[in-house]
């Protein structure tokens, strides 16, 4: 019985650690993909934002574009797909911000 408890404790702690590490890795990848897509969108739209704004634009733009394109049946997967989706969304957000400023 004691052995079973030890095995359960080990399996549970391993799954929790694996889930936490997986979440941290997903956050790091999202930040990198957001930074790259925000930077590329800034170049495409000839916008001069800082690094932090580029990361935010890329992440939020990727989420917005993913939702909008998903509604019409277009889906992206993988890192390259995330970058493409982030670029589209960040360009859209920059365009909307320019319309609001005018």
Structural class, from helix and strand content?
mainly alpha
How far is it from the N-terminal to the C-terminal residue, by CA? 72 Å
- Rg over CA atoms, rounded to whole Å, is 19 Å
Largest sheet: none
Helix-strand topology string: HHH
Low-confidence stretches at least 5 residues in length (pLDDT < 50)?
none
User: So how many helices?
Assistant: 3
Q: What percentage of amino acids are in beta strands?
A: under 5%
How many separate structural domains? 1
Mean pLDDT: 78
Helix content: over 70%
The coarse overall form would be elongated
Q: How is the topology of this model organized?
A:
Elements: H1 2-44, H2 51-71, H3 78-101
